[in-house]
Amino acid sequence: MFVDQVKVFASAGHGGPGCIAFRRESFAPKGGPSGGNGGRGGSVILRADHDLNNLIGQFYTPRLIAKSGENGLGKGMDGSAGKDLIVRVPCGTLVWRLPSPPAPPEEGQDEDQPGPPPAPPGKRIALEDATDITAVELDLEADSANQSDPTDLGEPELVADLTEDGQEFILCKGGRGGLGNRNFATATRQAPRFAQPGEPGEEGHFRFELRFIADIGLVGYPNAGKSTLLAAISKARPKIAAYPFTTLHPQIGIVEYEDFHRLTVCDVPGLIEGAHQNVGLGHAFLRHILRCTTLALVIDMAGTDGREPWDDYKQIRQELELYDPSLVEKKILVVANKMDEADAVEKLKQFKRKIRKTPIIGISAAFGEGMENFRTLIREASLC
User: Fold this and answer.
1) CATH number for the segment(s) 5-101+151-210
2) Where are the extended beta strands (E) located within the chain?
3) pTM of the predicted model, to two decimals?
4) d(Cα 158, Cα 295) in Å, to the nearest integer?
């Protein structure tokens, strides 16, 4: 199972409350306050790990709850701090903070019951609480501005981008522990009978989004031979079959050279017309090539699916540009695949006349032809 996007709820631990205690010993019946401090709450920490390649761990554990700090104790003993919750995520994970959902209605209040009648802007009214005589003033102008559209929760906010192995980010910070009553003793107040409560830990709703970090991205129509090419140049073994959409999620392969140089190649599932509008889950595939330095457009030069190769090239570039204009500004190589077919040579000549000023390399991934030349070109492109 491959998971590259998941929503989670994270909550750091609360700080423990301080203790109210006094020394009571045989020869010190009035020894003074001795309440210890509460322990701090544990934090939720994200740590990037290059050994992971998807977010399946967070898919099955969508609630990330850290431990709270312990209460302070007598005799000046502080409570233990809550243990931090360290969550491992793959390198290339983006963390988005989601807007908080609206608070549920209070107990005894009907959800469909209309609220108080609106007041003219700028005026203030006072509401009497049945259990508290104190009048509370409410600024209805600000309140109406905040509740003008309860369905609009705002846009997600990007808070972290974890790209390096071992990189850490504090998603939710634990609450500070409260001070015990020994901290409030003064010359004029020698027996304080109060202590601080612990502070609550941070919490929120987040979305984790994985974008693969690769040097080369293989992009093309379904059944163009991308998975066959990936298997020919690396030790990756993606599923290969003679029907479109065999690849359902991105595949990563490592290309190794004799001088121990390595390149990471990402094979994304086939794109179709309208992918920039998320047709055929286009957004789920296109975001994985945003970090690639070079794009290799794999074209079926033989036109086995009834399309002309130059039309495929123009359509792919158009989908990339409509999704993100920065994609067409990357280094682009055109890989003319299936050159072993009968019509491929003639169509390649027509392709070069129609598409100029673009590097083109002819290969046959199924028979391993042109692989060394392709490996050399992608290495040179990655180093430029």
Assistant:
1) 2.70.210.12
2) 5-11, 44-49, 63-65, 85-90, 93-98, 124-129, 132-139, 157-162, 168-172, 203-210, 216-220, 251-256, 262-267, 294-300, 331-337, 360-362
3) 0.76
4) 26
Which residue stretches of the chain have pLDDT < 50?
114-152
Residue 265, strand partner residues: 216, 253
Count Cβ atoms within 10 A of the Cβ of residue 30 and give its class: 0-12 exposed, 13-18 middle, 19 or more buried.
exposed
Q: pLDDT digit string (tens) for 105-146? A: 666 555 555 444 444 444 333 333 333 333 333 343 334 334
DSSP, res 13: P
Please state, as a whole number, how many other Cβ atoms lie within 10 Å of the Cβ of residue 101.
Answer: 8
- Contact partners, residue 159, CB within 8 Å, separation at least 6: 95, 96, 97, 169, 206
Provide the token pair at 43.
């934090």
Domain extents for the chain? 5-101+151-210, 216-383
How many helices (H) does the chain have, and how many strands (E)?
7, 16
Give the integer Cα–Cα distance in Å for 178 and 39.
Answer: 8
Other beta carbons within 10 angstroms of residue 213's beta carbon come to: 18
Residue 212 near residue 253, CB atoms below 8 Å: no
Query: In DSSP terms, which residues pair with 335 in a beta bridge?
Result: 298, 361
- The CATH architecture annotation of domain 216-383 reads 3-Layer(aba) Sandwich (3.40)
CA 88/CA 187 separation, integer angstroms: 51
